[in-house]
Amino acid sequence: MSAALVLSRARRSVLVVDAGAPRNGPAAHMHGYLSRDGMAPAELLKVGRAEVRHYGGDILDATVDGLTEDRTGFEVTLTGGLRRTARRVLVTTGLRDELPDITGLRQRWARDVLHCPYCHGHEVRDRQLGVLGGSPGAVRYAQIVRQWTHDLVYFTPPGTLTAAERTQLTARAIGVVEGAVEQLLVNDDRLRGVRLAGGRVVPRDALFVPPTFVPNNHLLTGLGCAVDDDGWVTTDPTGRTSVPGVWAAGNVVDPRAQVITAAGAASAAAIALNADLVGEDVRSAVDAYQHTS
């Protein structure tokens, strides 16, 4: 929507194809977006759609099944066989969060099972919090969550902590519980505790879980866009991919991007995309002028 706003104001013909399944859909509120802090994600989309349409942009509720290059640019195939063509494409398909297979965890996602302390930490401040550890970087992640509470427990499989990590956790009064997490306990639609294998229950009000980020980048890789060693599509600072005419922005190329970051990246991509189109328009005009002179 951010890119569409910039491009439609630049008097470009713009089509937004929205599959209607944003990553933050389960969240009740969005935070850290200046002037929109606390707004529901759906409300931001509603306002954004109205702004884009005000400047003549089109929005289509559909899913893109295919993206291919053609003689004039690109052909977009939508679910049901509908096709659209475009001179340039910006892909903002985001990512999906792969979560640990723990009973009750996914059902509480974005409610009291959380992944971003900067998005949700303030709302659960000073409560009994937990961090599900054991993955690379999880100890550092727990140290960040510690900023929002004095009552934090780090859950981790036995034998995963180094001596230095254990010292760091102890030094900041972060409790360490070693064992396999088996289930989340919920009562009255609220997280109440974490059950370990063997039956021990540790009371917690919210649990932070560092998920595995998987980019929804099949449209980009299908076009042949270059990826890094971890499988993420690479772009220049404006979001331009290795395939001419294709840009990408947001979580599909940046797993750390929050809503405000993704919107800013899309705005920058739109400006670069329009400049690229202007360059093509100039070349076409010169060719036509020289042909008729």
From TrEMBL:
It catalyses: [thioredoxin]-dithiol + NADP(+) = [thioredoxin]-disulfide + NADPH + H(+). Keywords: Flavoprotein, Oxidoreductase. Residues 1-264 form the FAD/NAD(P)-binding domain. InterPro entries: FAD/NAD-bd_sf, FAD/NAD-binding_dom, Ferredoxin-NADP_redctase_2. The keyword Oxidoreductase applies. SUPFAM superfamilies: FAD/NAD(P)-binding domain (SSF51905). Pfam families: Pyr_redox_2. This is NAD(P)/FAD-dependent oxidoreductase. It comes from Dactylosporangium cerinum.
